[in-house]
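Lecture notes, unit on protein representations.

Consider one protein chain, 328 amino acids long.
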Amino acid sequence: MTEAREMDKKGRATSFLLILAVLGLWFVPSGQAWSAEQAQRVRIAYASRSSSAMPLYMALQKGYFKAEGLEVEIIQMNPRLGATAVVNGDVSFATPFTSTFRGILQGFPMKLVFIHLKKGPYFVMVRPEIKEVQQLKGKKLGVATIKGTDQLVAEEMLQAKGFNPNQLQAVAIGDGPVRMQALVSGAVDAVCVAPPHDLMLRKMGYPALAGPPEIGLPSAGMLTSDRLIKENPQVVRRTLKALLRSHQYILENRQDTIQTLIKWLPQPLDIAEHSYDNELKTLSRDGTMTDAEIDAIIARVGEKKRPLDEVRDFSFARQAMKELATGR
């Protein structure tokens, strides 16, 4: 009899706990339960550990992604792999601009949804013995990837100085720090790099032969799949909202941004200040580009032209900007 009563008590206790669980009244801190249930995992691929990736790092450090219910992981990846990784679902977004945008023009089901930097502040840095542009004939230009942003911008700047870029041999080396080391070691004769690597090289005695560009190309954006746009548009909007907050903070807080940049990419203070003043202060305030700007880029990087509605969608950036403006 006692055993039966004990079993009945246990049964009622179990039922009570089950009811609590169903009603969501289980004793777990509500914030933890909410975040565990709601956090959406997002993976973002970037090309180089450089200043251009700072908006991602700042958004992580300041908790902007978490505030939007996102669990974000940033992954360094060869820019040539960006488009494939996005379409395959290995990452949600890719930031390398030219290689990924070219994939869109070639038919990849993706869109450009956000711009970090409309014009990367690139410089053509050369070996100390090279004093003028015509000495580059037959020399090697170290690039991140063949026909990537840095190569196209380098060719534009050299052509503007009367040099035929077809007389250069482009060699795929890798990201900024690797290209810098290739120049120092003598493996290549010239590289095209952005801050902080240009000033690092100047301090080592390597001159800038050209730069920054008059026209240039975007160095970083946010490109994602048509599938994510269709199936989870809220993730796209929330990701861009976090990045717009990051842009605003960077543009309005020079000193703290410089200190965060040093944490992200260890460097002397004067080089970090150079990176901010020549690159980060030119971040886009709204993450968009005009159709004329997009058309001009298509003409320069694409083998074929696609309708604008098939290559860009800035509606999420505009919606996110509106929410920030109204304090939502």
